[in-house]
Amino acid sequence: MAPSHRAAAEDWLSQDPDPGTRAELEGLLDDAAALADRFGARLEFGTAGLRGELGAGPNRMNRVTVLRAAAGLAARVRADGDPDAGVVIGYDARHGSERFALDTAAVMAGAGLRAWLLPRPLPTPVLAFAVRHLGAAAGVMVTASHNPPRDNGYKVYWGDGAQIVPPLDAEISAAIDAVGRVDALPLAEGWTVLGEEIVTAYLDALSADLPLGTARGVATAYTALHGVGRDVLLAAFERAGFARPAVVREQAEPDPDFPTVAFPNPEEPGAMDLLLALAAGSGADLAIANDPDADRCAVAVPGPAGWRALTGDELGGLLAEHVLRHTAGADRLVVTTIVSSSLLEAIARAHGVRHAVSLTGFKWIMKAGGPGDRRVFGYEEALGYSVGGVVHDKDGVGAALTAAALAAEAKADGRTLAGLLDDQARRYGLHATAQLSFRVADLSLITGALARLRAEPPAELGGRPVTSVEDLADGAGGLPPTDGLRLRTGEARVVVRPSGTEPKLKCYLEVVLPAADDVPAARTRAAAALDALKASLTAALGL
């Protein structure tokens, strides 16, 4: 056993305020492998904040880790010199979330900052909204979003209501490194617990800002996936005049163990099965799912072969065109990311509005554009959407409302969302997308795969010659450097990058084909092309 690991564990025990993690660690003091895992590395604070497995030690999410993160954030907020600076804190219903939020509030108050705590477990977009609504200097959302039950996380927002980007992440990380023992931190109880008026303000802002039109004749089914979205979404639908959605009973209440799903992520196979069954049995026109912290939104629609979930890119294209039909002005800006479909650029061009591409993640989407741009819509293919200006982050509740308005408008015109997708394919060409993900236990496998791809990029993909290879680490199109590669053939584009929140290597595939004459035939060709790309990538990556 490395003596340093044992000594670090004993030092941790002497300051850990949590009896549960103390007992856990005491039982591991003679387990060299366990101590090396927990004390041989630590969770790194970055633009995604912190996210990791619950447990004792610096390589886990726990009260010591959170207290240190809160103290570092407080120091960085104080460094700006605003004597009235405040931090608003939200949390979901995961294991440990409320305790972590209370610890954060105590640290902020102890540092002489104003601290506001949301009144109960609430969606992440409510926290993002509250930062700007309250004029806070920063915000913290305790959530691991759609990660497995064993995880939790710590997401940081700045005063613009958006997630932090460099160099703020490095500055906060450095401030965390400078924090001493957590049992020496000054803590105080002078924080403010907000009332339901903050939720009411969020709902009022959605009703006033979203392009909801006047049609309301749509029946919906909904699941919260054991998360915190249900009550806020139902209130939003009622306030906007939509009929109450039918709710998946088994997944309606917050449950940190997520008992009905393998992963609480609408993108994962099987996660929406109960929702689709309810939609089919209740005669719904539309099925909607939020992830557990309700910042993402998935939509499914009925078709000749049964219900199917729209891809993030399909819904992104439909919502973008809906927003542009209901807004005006040449200063409008629509934004998506380098891994999302290129369809949005074609839509923007047809509507005469501005278009921007950002790095992956809503923290970058919110920074896209320039002077004179009015961002009306942003999306990423991972089911994240921002409509209007209420929330400077992805908002699964606002997206759900807008999707319901889109479906109601289509139904009133005798149309379906599937029909609207066909219209877009005819007008802009079929932009078919898919993902290929490799989940690993050892992150070095991802590093090795990317190194091999850089050293020997494939000469062909899916039976077509590769025409260009861009290393995104060098920057691309004026974007900041990021780890990943982009490869193109004549009709296809592939982006390969490591996930920022999970131990996955992710591949984003797009095929663009003409479809004006026969959309079904184009879809068949595109599906075959995507399958061929997946096979080529699997062989090239060796995972």
Automatic annotation (TrEMBL):
Name of the protein in question: Phospho-sugar mutase
Domain (Alpha-D-phosphohexomutase C-terminal) ranges: 467-512
Cofactors named for this entry: Mg(2+)
Source organism of this protein record: Actinomadura parmotrematis
Pfam families (alphabetical): PGM_PMM_I, PGM_PMM_II, PGM_PMM_III, PGM_PMM_IV
Family the entry assigns: Belongs to the phosphohexose mutase family.
PROSITE patterns documented for this protein: PGM_PMM
Origin superkingdom: Bacteria
Domain Alpha-D-phosphohexomutase alpha/beta/alpha positions: 43-178, 201-300, 311-427
Keyword line: Isomerase, Magnesium, Metal-binding, Phosphoprotein
Signal peptide residues on this chain, from the entry's feature table: none
